[in-house]
Amino acid sequence: xxxxxxxxxxxxxxxxxxxxxxxxxxxxxxxxxxxxxxxxxxxxxxxxxxxxxxxxxxxxxxxxxxxxxxxxxxxxxxxxxxxxxxxxxxxxxxxxxxxxxxxxxxxxxxxxxxxxxxxxxxxxxxxxxxxxxxxxxxxxxxxxxxxxxxxxxxxxxxxxxxxxxxxxxxxxxxxxxxxxxxxxxxxxxxxxxxxxxxxxxxxxxxxxxx
Length: 210
What we know:
By secondary structure, the chain is mainly beta. The chain has strands spanning 2-7, 20-24, 44-52, 63-70, 76-83, 93-101, 109-115, 121-128, 133-136, 140-141, 146-154, 163-164, 171-174, 180-188, 197-205.
């Protein structure tokens, strides 16, 4: 028979308890392997210690050591920018959402930044993640007219590489406010010709920074 023992990264094979053990019966010369295998949960170099046992055969190696390296998972993130109130400046809330896929129990944070219509860049904030899924960014009120472009970056963790967005579905465009005015005509003094002073007043509403 052949016994397969798998040890965790950094484990001492002479003293540690194997993560996985399987014994496979042999029948002559040939290639033999485990039937189920082991799904790794740590990043690093695992060690296989493989032992052969046969009471009737001499002169064969009793054991063999092989190493396998498990790398971090490489997740992807995709984003979807959005806005409320048709993007009216001074009123619309701008936001982004990020979908994390392909991580292994991903933790850490996704940080959101935005390039404003005037070309400056603002840090909007971070959100914590817990596994694959969709997460919403912080929101902010649009204060400029034009195109806002979001960017998102995942920090990674001990089991997952970091990632940045693919640059798609990142932009929203804001528009000018549409104020309205209400007027009220009047005059001073009497309404007689040559004595009345006509006046008008206007109430402006729904303007932004007018």
